[in-house]
Amino acid sequence: MLLRNGGPESPSLLNYEITGADLYWDRTLETPAPDEFKRKITSQRIEEIERRGKFLNFSLSDFHFLLHLRMSGDVLIQPKTEPPGKHHRLSLNFKNGLKFSFIDPRKFGRAWLVKDPDLILGNLGPEPLSVDFTPTYLHKALSSHKRQIKPLLMDQAFLAGLGNIYTDEALFLAKIHPLTKSDQITNNQSERLFQSIRFVLSEGIRKNGASIDWVYRGGEFQNYFRIYSRKGERCIDCGDLIERVIVGQRSTFICPTCQPDPVVN
Asked: Which residues are catalytic?
């Protein structure tokens, strides 16, 4: 995992010893209480860093520090002497003079310090890029539900890690309308959807995510969108005009020709 620090690559953070923490907005921390958090995390050493779904999981000497960036969260490695900015929410200070800073303009991100990470992560679905996620698994899982395909794919208990952008992109590549009922997805469609999900996530990772507003300017995946946020533009496959609809209270972008409405057809 790379963390932004203004240079080409961040330190790995492994074996860094935490000498203290600064909390600039208390509601960033879900648990424990701020004073207990600062006391418990002091003197902890980072042993491993993993991702589970949309969560970062820092395995410490005795605890797990979990962080969910949500819509606008970002992390930086900075000198400990760097003053906090307007949107700094939490910092972990290290013995070597650096600090890990969580920056979140919209204040949606959350952090936890727990003994057992499964208290937070235990209900997440499979990882789309793992070996356990297969076309057969996906088709069986889809067939066991009778839900609209887009909200189901975004349900983190069904599949961990897919958000609004990547779901739209994957459904477009698979030529599936987002209102299609999951139990009506055929084997061939499941295979296409499986490949599309893995492709768009891999592309997003390679391009450091998407920068769609002023909050995060680190990614370039937005320059490669095939469908998302392209209302009124021409579909790259058929030339029809891309439409914006609401599915599950989320803005959704479709090509009416490539992704025919299952209710109409």
From this structure: 8-9, 54, 250
